[in-house]
Structure formats: C-alpha cells, structure tokens
Design brief:
Layout lengths: L35 H12 L2 E5 L3 H6 L6 H15 L5 E4 L2 H4 L2 H17 L5 E6 L3 H12 L9 E4 L9 H10 L2 E7 L6 H4 L10 H16 L8 E5 L5 H7 L10 E3 L9 H8 L6 E5 L1 H4 L5 H15 L7
Parallel strand pairs: 1-2, 1-8, 3-4, 4-5, 5-6, 6-7, 7-8
Helix pairs in contact: 3-5, 3-13, 6-7, 10-11
The chain binds the ligand O=c1ccn([C@@H]2O[C@H](COP(=O)(O)O)[C@@H](O)[C@H]2O)c(=O)[nH]1.
EC number: 4.1.1.23
Pathway: Pyrimidine metabolism; UMP biosynthesis via de novo pathway; UMP from orotate: step 2/2
Protein name: Orotidine 5'-phosphate decarboxylase
Amino acid sequence: MSERDPGRVPEPAAGPAPTPDPLPGAGPAAVSELGFGPRLQAAMARRGPLCVGIDPHPALLSAWELPDDAAGVERFSRTVLEAAAGRCAAFKPQVALFERHGSAGMAALERLLAEAAAADVLTIADAKRGDIGSTMAAYAQAWLADGSPLAADAVTLSPYLGFDSLRPALDLAAVTGRGVFVLALTSNPEGAGVQHAGDDGDGGSVAGRICAAAADENAARRSADGWGPVGLVVGATVGAETIRRLGIDLAAVAGPLLAPGYGAQGAGVAEVAATFGRAVPAALVSSSRQILAAGPAAADVRAAVEATVEDLRSLAPAG
Ligand SMILES: O=c1ccn([C@@H]2O[C@H](COP(=O)(O)O)[C@@H](O)[C@H]2O)c(=O)[nH]1
C-alpha cells in the first residue's frame, strides 16, 4: 500500500492465500493503534475482502437445531465467530436478529462483540441507525464509544434524516478510531425509488450526494495511513449501469465500500467486479445466509467461508 495514495489498497486477490489466524490475538498489536480504515485495509490485504454476516434468522436456528431464543442465537453466533475468525476480514452481526430476543438477545450481542474485540477480530454492527442529531449522539455513544457494552469497530448508519444529522457518529468514530458505513445504494430493489431520486447523470441523485458527502468527510479526516473512517453501503446487486447512469465515482470516496447482496441475494463475483469497477479493491463483500446455511458444524461453516474467500480471490484489482 502506498502511503501517498490512501485511496488505494493492497491487491486482496493476488498472491498466496491469506493465512488463517487462530482466534486469540488474531491481529498484530500495532494495527490496533490505527483508525478503522487502515485496520480494515490491513485485514483485507491479509485475508481478502470477505465480511461474514452473522444473521441468526429463525429458519437458520431451526436448521441448526437450535432454539429460537437468546441462547440459540448465542450458540449460533459463537460457532460462526470461532469457525471463521482469522479467515475473513470482518464480521457483520445483524443487530435486528439479536434485538428480536429483547434484552437477552442484546446481551448475547454484547458478549459476541466483546469476544471479537478481545481476539482482534473486526466487527461491523449492522444497526442502520439514524436520527436527529441529539438522539444520534446517543446511538453514536452506544456503538462507537470506548467502554460502551455494544462498542463495535464500525456501525451501519442511515442518512435519510440528512447526512449531517449523522455528525455525532462521524465525529465520535474519528475520535475513537472506529468507522461508519452510510447507506448509499442498498442491495434491495426498493432502494432505487429513494436513492436514485434527483438523478441528473452527474452525481446529483440522493445516493450521489451521500457519496460526495462521504468523500468530503474522508478528505478532511483521513491520514497518510489509508482510508478515512466513513464507508458506504453499496449493494453488489446494484450493477455497473446504475453507477454509470447516476454519475457516481465510488473510488473518490477513499473509504471502504460494504457490499451486501453477494450469495443469497444473487450477486456473484462478476456482479461485484462490474458494480465496483476501479473501486473494487475497496469492496468489502458481505455474505450471510449462503455461508450460514452450511452449518451447524463449525467445520462446514469454515469450509463455506474458505470457498467464498477463494471465489473472491478472482476479483480484479483496481486499474
Ligand atoms: O443494502 C443492504 C444493506 C444491508 N444488508 C444486510 O446484509 C445482510 C445480507 O444478508 P444475506 O443473507 O447475505 O443476503 C443482511 O443482514 C441485511 O440486513 C443488505 O442485505 N443490503
């Protein structure tokens, strides 16, 4: 990685297969002193661009012969963490699937996040938070403050109360060395109705403005070490044509691009490559159900993770 060119990341697909780390002490100590962007870049350079989603859906709990309660969710999550730690760049627990079990479910999430942090495993809490600034400050403290029981390395945010309503989270992430992923172009087809609005072919759509705001934020925040703390969510299902038509330059964000939609939602490596184009080294490809369906045996989950990592190794690096 060139420190003079922080938008570029090392080629995740080339070279020898990433070395799995044992769960305890997975990351080098020096990396943890960096901000979220450089820490994620280092993890992706080492292990490839896979983010394993931890989505304990009722149907998966049933398929794993686990109860649909907080204890089942905890067993499920710990199995996934232990099976995949050191084999992927990050984990993305889906908060809703813990929250549906009330305080016991959230306590299970707290323990999962703490266990991952102790093992130097990067976590992205998929909470999609967003509110007026005063309330946003409380969400920011919950997910991004040092010492918070729910602190993760990053959290997903919804900008539909205005990008700047996220200010408390943007500021706190920068202070605590954590990150955010702001919804820009989501993987679901319904997202287009809102996110493409205002399209002028020159980045003027809602999504284009979110991308520009994230780029501005990172330009002000990032250091010579690499990506800024503000990432975007851009579905792997979005497609090159949409990105081109909206006039969006994803590479200009200079931050990570969380790419759900791979696997269960139908996108494959070709769709990731097409959607992200020259920004593909910034794509952190998230897959949940396709991998989780391999369980309940940890060895089978691990094999599914390794197969996905292998698939993603064919992604072309940025030109
Ligand atoms: O645009 C978005 C934003 C978030 N998600 C989340 O990602 C996973 C996808 O799960 P799969 O089983 O791999 O389809 C899930 O937690 C979503 O809430 C998304 O799909 N699209």
